[in-house]
Design goal:
The structure is a single chain. The chain is of the alpha+beta class. Helix content is about 45%, strand content about 25%. The chain contains 12 helices and 12 strands. It has helices spanning about 5-10, 10-30, 45-55, 65-70, 70-85, 125-160, 170-200, 210-225, 245-265, 295-300, 310-315, 320-330; strands at about 30-35, 40-45, 90-95, 100-110, 115-125, 205-210, 230-235, 240-245, 270-280, 280-290, 335-340, 345-355. The strands form 3 sheets. A 5-stranded antiparallel beta sheet has the order 2-1-5-4-3. Strands 7-9-10-12-11 form a 5-stranded mixed beta sheet. A two-stranded antiparallel ribbon has the order 6-8. A hairpin with a 3-residue loop joins strand 11 (about 335-340) and strand 12 (about 345-355). Helix 6 packs antiparallel against helix 7 (about 170-200). Bound molecules: adenosine-5'-diphosphate. Adenosine-5'-diphosphate binds near residues 260, 301, 307, 318 and 324.
Length: about 350
Amino acid sequence: MSLLTAWFSNKEIVEHSSRSILSEILKTMRESVIVVGRDTRILASNAAAYNAFGRRNGALEDKRLSEVVRDLTLHEAFRKALEERADSDIELELPGVEKRKYDVHIAPIEFDKTAGAIGIFYDITQIERLERVRQEFLSNVSHELRTPLTSILAFVETLEDGAINDTENNQRFLGVIRKNAQRMHHLIDDILELSSIESGGISLEPKNVNLHSLVEDVFTNLSAKTAGRKIKLKNEVGAVARVFADTARLEQMLTNLVDNAIKFNRETGNVTVAFERADEKDTISISDNGEGISGEHLQRIFERFYRTDRARSREIGGTGLGLAIVKHLARLHGGEVSVSSVLGKGSTFSIELPAAAE
Ligand code: ADP
């Protein structure tokens, strides 16, 4: 007899080991498991159940199910399992600061000749959130594309209906068509960019970058946008300041933020880029003394397509994706982007990066 067979043939060992295997399985499960007895008192639960329902209530064992989760449908399903020995599948929504949603399977079980019921709670909060984000994204994209497309079609029809021979206006109409087509182009570029960043499709090649000269390059590229509005671009980054980043991606972040600081500025306003190193962190700040952002919008502007004034952003060539791209790129660098702003006074966007090694 092999050692294993001998080992397994010992009934006591088998029982003991299968019990501990079961208990280990329960411990490592991501789903919450609650077992109740006839009187709906909890007889057993796993770590996931404790994390989900026990934090406020302490240990779950010996408590009544109704003390731990207050939900009529859930209680009805457990009653059905205990009294009618029937399975149920329900959706459970737990209110609170951090709302959670579960798919719950409830079934009758029997142990030591007593009837009980088991509930297995599968947390679908995240899945639902992702699904919502996906739907919102699709509907936003369609909407954003439809607006310039409608305008293009309308102007093409006008030209076809005779305006093509109207020498005073035909060039202007073509100009509007071009502007809208460019907007669609820009939008699709930004969507593709964002999707490749989000899906991990880009890899960074970080190195020590001279920030002062990079900011100079960004200013040069955007200088045409300040023309006529007398907006001053100020580079306050020290000549030797270095950050550890992917040059092209850092330039992209700075371009988006400086571009916004120009766009949402006022005549004769300033845009200042500065640098600070503290506590192993490098902070690049882009400040403007333009229109500012009110508190209600402030926490949402990094969301895709979120704009404080949709029509105006479109008019000045915005896609509403610039800040979402900056956020993702900053995170990809192990950093973060944040904003502080006073309505009517101006805004400061800060990119925080892990400090460059000396
Ligand atoms: P876009 O600039 O294409 O509209 P962004 O994602 O870059 O999209 O910015 C989102 C919104 O945040 C802008 O539409 C604007 O309402 C607001 N915003 C961004 N930067 C500034 C700024 N410096 N000052 C005021 N509002 C800003």
